[in-house]
Specification:
Distance between the termini: 38 Å
Structural class: alpha/beta
Order of helices and strands: EEHEHEHHEHEEEHH
Strand content: 15-25%
CATH architecture of the largest domain: 3-Layer(aba) Sandwich
Helix content: 25-40%
CATH class of the largest domain: Alpha Beta
Number of strands: 8
Shape: elongated
Radius of gyration: 24 Å
Length: 272
Amino acid sequence: MTANRPLAPPSEGAERGPSYVEANPESPVAICTLSSHELLDDLARSALVDRVAIIGPLETENIGIERMISTVLARPRIRWLICCGEEARGRYQGHALRALFTRGVDAEGAVVTARSRRARLRMLGPEHVDAVRRQLRFRDLIGVHDVGTIARAVDECLCDDPGRFEEHVSLPDPEPIEVPTRPFRLREEDPNGFFVIQVDRGRAQLLIEHYSVDRALMHRIVGSDAESLCTALVEWGLVSRLEHAAYLGRELVKAELALRQGIRYRQDEPFS
């Protein structure tokens, strides 16, 4: 369950549902669907949504849990956490969440008895974990997908509402670093050469021409999407500077958007 911008339940026929749903702020119940996004969509479309405070996924056993803790501690009205759906194999975030509420964390921030070695909290301390364990009662429905079963658990939690959590816990809130608006310029020429990016609408592809520093054509590379092309440029060692890789990523995403949306693309220029 991550602290994202709340989204409304998906409309009929929508291809993708919400990343999370924030509904009734007076409800003491939150639902975590782990990696089961279809279950999140089903719950978001059901009448259950009006009886809970928030419904959201939990994707990772470290940063994901930290965000969940921060989200809940900022909402002291939430006193129950129902965890349902399936965890991702290898991440075992459901097991880590269960272990967190059962055993807490050690002095190094590792979730005690968690199956994943990555289940370690870096940004939050034991005091935050102890606070959320006092605030929340954990209802373990891991593996459950049936909306009716989840709804009955919600009703039971609503009937056992301990009221607002009165403890105040300070959360880390690093000041954001504001980046001034400025055009991107490579500080130094990449010794591996430079690239010319074009959109081939006839073949529905992106075309990259790779030139050496003395402007000799080295490679012509085609692909249908920016992600695959960026991966290839890095794996093949055609880019040697981080800022050059960042620049190419930006331009290839622009080119892909232009290809998909029928917009004219010119390298280094904004969309017109």
